[in-house]
Amino acid sequence: MAMTNFRVFVLALLLLLGSSLLHVARCQSDAEVDFAEAAEEGGELGIVSEDVQEFGDENFSPAPGVDTVCVFPKNSGKVVPAGEETELLVGFKNDGDSDVNVIAIKASVHLPFDHRLFVQNLTAQGFNNASIPTSTQATFPYIFAVSKFLQAGNFDLVGTIIYEIDQQPFQNIFYNGTIEVVEAGGFLSVESVFLVTLGIALLVLLGLWIRGRIQQLSKKTKRTPKVEVGTGTTDASMDEWLQGTAYTQSQASKSKKKK
Q: Which of 3, 25, 62, 229 is most buried by its number of CB atoms within 10 A?
């Protein structure tokens, strides 16, 4: 039974490792490919302003002819350490009829199963001199940090870029997807925690199996101890002590009758 459980655990480990490799292979999304092509074509980079304005919760509609894309540089798994800065890049393409003035980028963190359950409002990052002429592409960095007290796990990040066309505000949601929050300074993810737990379980199971085998072998080698029963002997000192008593006299009379 123990050997069967051991084989099941090994099979589960192999399947998990295979799924992890497939997940890594799928990390390059179509959006990242499009952004890489846009970066090769070049474009203006917005300059971060020193005075970051506070933007309310007002929502605007996207402008026609404006497309955005988001990339996490060297972080295809979208892993965000709690309390530490994380950078993403927003690709902005203006195919409209007018110039675009990019104002700011903001983002918020929500629970994945219901965006109405708000977790954290991230800092807005403003830009100046970020005018994008028509038929032009640009990239904008956005650096954010989730709370260091945020529990590790999967959350949804909603990122918005706000811009103006002819002094009329618009906005595009450049990212609305999952991020994985991990403890600061650690590289543990849900899969790595599962692998560590599985490894410990395998070691425990292997130890129990070895212990059971040792106990079986020890039972086979055990032998029942032999009990030796010897014949009774008469102690000479006892005879000397009984000399002169009724016991010796009766013994003497018996020996005479036999004669």
A: 62
